[in-house]
Write a structure and sequence with these properties.
The complex is a heterodimer of chains A (437) and B (330).
Chain A: H1 3-16, H2 19-44, E1 51-57, E2 74-78, H3 83-90, E3 97-101, E4 113-116, H4 122-143, H5 148-154, E5 162-165, E6 171-174, H6 176-211, H7 214-218, H8 223-262, H9 266-274, H10 278-296, H11 299-326, H12 335-350, H13 352-357, H14 362-369, H15 374-381, H16 388-416, H17 426-434
Parallel strand pairs in A: 1-2, 1-3
Antiparallel strand pairs in A: 3-4, 5-6
Helix pairs in contact in A: 1-8, 2-8, 6-8, 6-11, 6-12, 6-15, 8-11, 11-15, 11-16, 14-15, 16-17
Chain B: H1 2-8, E1 31-41, E2 46-56, E3 60-64, H2 71-78, E4 86-91, E5 94-95, E6 104-107, H3 119-129, H4 134-147, H5 163-175, E7 181-185, H6 193-208, E8 212-217, H7 220-226, E9 229-234, E10 237-243, H8 244-250, E11 255-261, E12 271-278, E13 283-290, H9 296-306, E14 308-314, H10 319-329
Parallel strand pairs in B: 3-8, 3-9, 6-7, 7-8
Antiparallel strand pairs in B: 1-2, 1-4, 4-5, 9-10, 11-13, 11-14, 12-13
Classes of the chains: A alpha/beta (437), B alpha/beta (330).
């Protein structure tokens, strides 16, 4: 094994053996699952406190229209008492609020007021608003003698199939929904991985510097070898973690799937199929559509690009992180240098929404070509289909960018690691960069 | 202890008999290292200005100078950590190049170890970075563990060791690859007296085995004892160098120190009393300089007639005094 190999091996093995790595490898997939499931679960939970809102309806126009649906958080209660009296009762806590509806001019309804203790949530207000709007609409429809049924028939449910025309002329069904999700997830993963493992490189350099072992090491190897060994070693840790997550997620989901399938009795199933309601059919249709959508995503391309842009982005930034570490004596010293490195990454995350709006627009194009933002932005674009020449250009520029940042970093690094105790600012770093020694 | 078990089957008896000149292509070359006209400047100051030194084989060479004189810069150049602006370094008459990394053992002034790594793994790593095979490295580590009686430490993390223990490991890390040239930058700073002595003993022993040692320090008293050659660097320039005794002789000034009881009157023009200090119990210490051509016996003869002489010795300047005199001269 040559020397750089030894360094890579040490960086790799000491990190992979850490308890935190093992814990993260196991917890990671669970954490992802939790992130996906918990919001859904929370949303599905009923809010514990039901709110009772008194309704004073002066015209009587809305009477009986404020029906209480079972799963609503708000219970409406008609009261006949005068407004002032009900208002004064709110403070004793039985009711959450009072909805006052004066006699309305249907063309220009005014004066509807919600009294409550504390500010009502946006959703409560919009719930009430929609309800009243709906009722007014129904009344107006009735006046124009259109029945609700007739109206319902006017409404048509529609799905638009998106087909990507490939360069070779074949058609590929696309789904912007799925593409967006895949794009977002992979862009965020690239972003997270770059920061996570870039910071590890930085901390590793600071550790060697503050342990004062660095001079012993660089009397055996060149500073550049030490820096690259560390960067590559940490990259391998990142890849290992990523692969472990994939394998674990796959295993867990396969196990879970087979567990649920075992519960599913085929005889019962066939009976159920005959009795299947229209609703269920619709649901099955949605599932089929979803599966179809997943099929349309070019998984090998996305995984391949993910690995490339993760590695390329990480190498590009990893060298800079190493340079920051070498110029700092402790974690706190790194703050002043972090901004210029973090800024393009954060910028590429902020602009994801605009890229999503127009995945082939000029902004998306430029951000996915410039090496500093390309890893994140390109991952967002790939599920929507990117012309091959753009992908190749972006990859080539990323490699060029990586060579450039590594060159810059190595010039700062070789001096920085031997500098102890002096306050280093941008000016000093500039000198290191441009002086030959 | 997986790796030591493996090495346990090795025959280590040949270790001590290893050819001490195994690395040296040209053992007849008298100087293990020569630096010729080294210049090096940093952005703000000149660190080395035309420095040339020669380290004879099998000597302990003291590289002396105040803080900031340029010692560490010179050492880093020898270790190929930085490059000189101009000048050349020869190892055994050969131009310094990457293959010499394994030939040199370096203990930097700023030193330390990976705190979270186990002692055995760490030494193995450092030895292999110096170019040793795993097999060779393991047997060397075992040799040093036995020698310093620390065999049980291999699986301990460095951070769990006491400071003194860490210093031993640090020293092993410097010499584990059996280098022929050992460079110690301020080796005794931060070492406790017991370890300092232990290392002093090891340095002498290695010299006797044919190794050459460069010993950089600003603390002169440690040099006096063990170095046979010195070079003095001040403000980036070499002030003097050569065998320690020759240098000391150069700075002799015909000065003699006498311890006596009783008083004396005028001794004549050839003997000049520099100073006289009373000691305890009626003893005095007197310092004389004598004219060239007059022997110390003549001074002694004069003294004996007047006072009781208890001790008489030539006052040879210590390296420390030479150092201070030279530095102040500049």
């Amino acid at each position: 094994m040559n020397k750089i190999g030894l360094i890579i091996w040490r960086e790799y093995i000491t990190r992979v053996r850490k308890k935190s790595f093992i814990i993260m490898s196991i917890l990671g997939p669970m954490l992802f699952g939790a992130i996906a499931i918990v919001p859904v679960w929370l949303a599905s939970q009923e809010s514990s406190g039901q709110k009772i809102i008194a309704v004073v309806d002066e015209s009587g126009m809305f009477a009986k229209n404020f029906q209480n649906a079972g799963d609503d958080n708000i219970i409406y209660e008609y009261v006949k008492e005068p407004v002032e009296e009900v208002k004064s009762e709110i403070s004793n806590g039985y009711r959450y609020g009072l909805l006052y509806i004066p006699t309305l001019d249907l063309e220009a309804p005014k004066g509807i007021t919600l009294f409550s203790e504390g500010n009502p949530s946006m959703s409560t207000v919009s719930d009430i608003k929609q309800k009243i709007q709906g009722i007014i609409k129904d009344i107006k429809l009735e006046r124009s003698s259109i029945s609700k049924h007739a109206l319902a028939q006017l409404e048509t449910k529609l799905n638009i199939a998106t087909i990507n025309l490939q360069e070779d002329g074949t058609e590929q069904q696309g789904s912007s929904g799925t593409s967006s999700i895949v794009g977002y997830v992979s862009a965020f993963l690239v972003y997270g991985f770059i920061f996570l493992y870039g910071a590890q490189v930085m901390r590793g350099v600071i550790e060697e510097k503050s342990n004062r072992i660095v001079e012993i090491i660089i009397s055996s190897v060149k500073p550049f070898q030490l820096m690259m060994g560390k960067i590559v070693g940490v990259a391998m840790v990142g890849l290992t973690q990523f692969l472990l997550w994939i394998v674990l997620t796959f295993t867990v989901s396969t196990l879970a799937f087979s567990f649920f399938q075992a519960d599913f009795d085929p005889v019962q199933a066939s009976v159920m199929t005959q009795q299947i309601s229209q609703d269920k059919a619709a649901q099955a249709d949605t599932v089929a559509q979803l599966e179809n959508a997943i099929d349309t995503i070019n998984i090998p391309l996305i995984v391949g690009c993910f690995l490339f842009f993760f590695l390329g982005g990480y190498l590009l930034y990893g060298a800079l992180f190493a340079a920051i570490g070498s110029a700092s004596d402790s974690d706190t010293d790194t703050q002043q240098f972090m901004l210029p490195i973090a800024a393009p990454l954060i910028f590429s995350i902020i602009t994801l929404a605009s890229v999503l709006n127009d995945p082939n627009g000029p902004m998306a194009f430029w951000l996915s070509i410039i090496p500093f933002t390309a890893p994140v932005t390109m991952m967002m674009r790939i599920p929507f289909g990117v012309p091959v020449w753009q992908l190749v250009l972006s990859m080539v520029l990323l490699i060029v960018g990586f060579v450039f940042t590594t060159w810059v970093a190595s010039r700062v690094y070789r001096i920085g690691i031997l500098t102890h105790g002096t306050k280093i600012n941008y000016k000093t770093i500039g000198k290191w960069l441009f002086n030959s020694h | 202890m997986w790796f030591l078990e493996k090495a346990g089957r090795l025959d280590l008896s040949s270790y001590g008999r290893k050819d001490i000149f195994a690395h040296s292509p040209n053992p007849t070359n008298l100087n293990v290292l020569e630096a010729h006209h080294i210049f090096k400047s940093y952005a703000r100051h000149e660190a080395l200005k035309d420095v040339s030194i020669a380290i004879p084989r099998q000597t302990i060479f003291g590289l002396l100078g105040p803080n900031g004189a340029g010692k560490t810069t010179l050492i880093r150049i020898i270790n190929q950590i930085i490059e000189p602006d101009s000048g050349s370094i020869l190892i055994n008459g050969e131009k310094l190049q990457p293959k010499h990394i394994g030939y040199i053992g370096y203990l930097p002034e700023e030193r330390g170890l990976y705190k979270k790594m186990k002692v055995g793994e760490q030494l193995l790593y450092l030895a292999r970075l110096k170019g040793l095979s795993r097999h060779e490295a393991v047997s060397r580590i075992q040799h040093w563990f036995a020698r310093l009686e620390i065999s049980g430490w291999s699986d301990k993390k460095v951070e769990d060791l006491s400071k003194g223990m860490q210093q031993k490991i640090q020293f092993i890390a410097t010499v584990v690859h059996d280098p022929d040239l050992i460079i110690l930058d301020e080796p005794f700073s931060g070492f406790d007296p017991i370890n300092a002595n232990l290392i002093k003993g090891e340095i002498m022993e290695m010299r006797d085995r044919g190794k050459s040692i460069i010993f950089s320090t600003h603390r002169m008293e440690s040099v006096e004892e063990i170095c046979s050659h010195i070079a003095l660097i001040n403000k980036a320039e070499k002030v003097l160098d050569g065998p320690k005794n020759e240098i000391k002789n150069q700075f002799r000034s015909n000065t003699y120190e006498v311890m006596h009881t009783g008083t004396f009157s005028d001794l004549g023009l050839s003997y000049q009393l520099v100073k006289q200090t009373p000691l305890e119990d009626g003893f005095f210490s007197a310092v004389f300089t004598i004219e060239p051509g007059i022997s110390p016996n003549q001074l002694l003869h004069e003294l004996i007639q007047q006072v009781e002489v208890h001790a008489f010795q030539e006052k040879i300047p210590s390296i420390n005094e030479i150092f201070i005199a030279e530095v102040q001269k500049q």
